Amino acid sequence: MPVLRIPTPLRAYTNGKSDVTVNGSNISEALIDLTNQYPTIKPHLFNDGGELRPFVNLFVGEHNIKDLQGVDTPIKDGEKIMLIPSIAGG
Amino acid sequence: MLPELNHEEILRYSRHLLIPEVGLEGQRKLKNSSALIVGTGGLGSPVSLYLAAAGVGRIGLVDYDVVDSSNLQRQIIHGTSTIGKLKVESAKSKLLDLNPDIQVDVYNEPYTSENALRIAKDYDIILDGTDNFPTRYLTNDVAVFLGKPNVYASIFRFDGQVSVFYAKEGPCYRCLFPEPPPPGLVPSCAEGGVLGILPGTIGTIQATEALKVLLGIGDPMIGRLLLYNALDMSFDFVKLKKNPNCRVCGPNADIKELIDYEEFCGVPGHDHEDGSAGSELDITAQELSERVKTNHLKLLDVREPHELEISALPNAVNIPLGQLAGRLTELDSAEDMVVFCKGGTRSMRAIELLSSAGFKKLKNLKGGINAWAKDVDTKLPIY
């Protein structure tokens, strides 16, 4: 199953887990599974209309899903999906 | 014409001169180059030290803060002897001690839409070592408008990011992050903490990229983002592309001049903890100490459980901010409630959340438990 890497700021909503194994054949399904497993993370990823928030960046391997097929981007078994956070510390 | 190196400089930089990719010409390029470092904190410390040591001829430092004891766990350019001094002056004296041949220009002022273009225009590159979203968007937009590379690094707890945003040749910061996260989602280092070594690891990579850009060698990280995690000791790289819809560097860009970045991000442009400053919901520690003598007040502590080991108020209920939305049923909206955290920022977020859930009898402890420790119960530590 694909593995979703959770950035530090969002781990508060995944019981501290850094990697969450998710079910799904594309990003959309994987995110639905993630939010089913950890419902409190949902408002941080999606707006009220159910769309991914603009500051949420998801990468499959090296590539931003915005440069692929968005949430319809297919994912393979064992593939690493990275949620890239906005962080601002310096 | 590049400046010559004198004999002392040739000796000083001999290890650079021995590298064919740098050599005498490269070192002369560095002497002729200039770098503006925005922020003289965790990242600015290693970045400015290494760029000064490397012989970058002119270094600009922008910061309006003073050195605080809580900086020294990571801001290694400052020292115990410079606590209370201006950061830019503390840093300048250290840099000139390290390398008296360079010029250090200091800007003891906040980096804002009013002064940023004026400050940055005379530098070859800009290094973003700021500690907040408004200044990061400002730094990016300034670099795009001036056509300069923005060597970006950012840190949080154990995570670090590095890239070179250069709109002439690749994506800019806004291509990756068109909008900031909502206020309160991503804590600052002052609220969330940061491993002291992290800015060292990340800042030295940032300085490396700056030197490569100035020398014109290697493969600068234009269009690539490094994601570092110290706990996993993982370095992941992802590819970044120019966003055709980017509002500052895209073909149909509609942002043509600097904007109000605090309004854009919904947060103040600094990483201080007096987030409650000026709010009518504020109650000072001294006022609170009087009120609790005569009134029944519910004290709600929204810090993380591990922070209670540092300092705590008796009779306070602890619900960490991240759990608050799911635990509202534990609170009674009929009660007068004072919400507090470490410094007043998270508690303000908690009050926003509680207000939207219908709570009305709310106050925010201005300056948080640290203000209580300073003004009321001095037996408590300040952290």
Commentary on this structure:
The complex is a heterodimer of chains A (90) and B (383). Chain A is an alpha+beta fold and 90 residues long. Chain A has a single domain (3-84), classed as Beta-grasp domain (Ubiquitin-like (UB roll), Roll). Helices cover 17% and strands 19% of the residues of chain A. Chain A has a five-stranded mixed sheet with strand order 2-1-5-3-4, with no helix packed on it. The longest helix of chain A is centred in the middle third of the chain and has 11 residues, at 27-37. Chain A is globular, with a radius of gyration of 12 Å. Chain A starts with a strand and ends in a 6-residue tail after the last strand. The mean pLDDT of chain A is 91. By secondary structure, chain B is an alpha/beta fold. Chain B contains 15 helices and 13 strands. In chain B, the strands form two sheets. In chain B, strands 3-2-1-4-5-6-7-8 form an eight-stranded mixed sheet, with helices on both faces. Chain B has a five-stranded parallel sheet with strand order 9-13-12-10-11. The radius of gyration of chain B is 23 Å and the shape is elongated. The N and C termini of chain B lie far apart (52 Å). Residues 273-277 of chain B have low confidence and may be disordered. The interface between A and B is large, with 26 and 51 residues.
Overall mean confidence score, pLDDT of chain A: 91
**Helical residue percent of chain B?**
25-40%
Q: Main sheet of chain B: which strands, in order across?
A: 3-2-1-4-5-6-7-8
What would you give as the CATH superfamily of chain A? Beta-grasp domain
Give the uncertain stretches of chain B in residue-range form. 273-277
Distance between the termini of chain A: 36 Å
Structural class of chain B: alpha/beta
Number of domains of chain B: 2
